[in-house]
Design goal:
alpha+beta; 6 strands; flat; 4-stranded mixed β-sheet
Length: 123
Amino acid sequence: LAYDLGQSLGCGAMLQDLVRTRYGPFTIECAVQLPRLEAAFSHGYWLHYLYPVDEVILGWDAAVVGAEAERRVLNGMSLTTLPLPGDDARCRAYSADGQLLGVLRFDQESAQWRPDKVLFSRG
């Protein structure tokens, strides 16, 4: 950030301090101080600080797939049975029982949804 500003102004720049106050749905108020997190690990209540794995992508479209499509996703195979994408070429894929399977990306060339990240395996 400082480098880019310095380049734009033609004078150079440096950054002494930067605090990220928000990333997606997470705010700095949600942050946990390291000593508190270390204590949680030591005393076995660290799960209290975990968010569901799909929390950061809840704004994306979602697809619930049947057993055959689930098998295809888990094996890295493309899907043609999902609707064409809206504004974003990515979506969350869930099994019929609500398990997050992964992230699908729409391939314009083949007009198919391809697994981009597979997060769950029933094996």
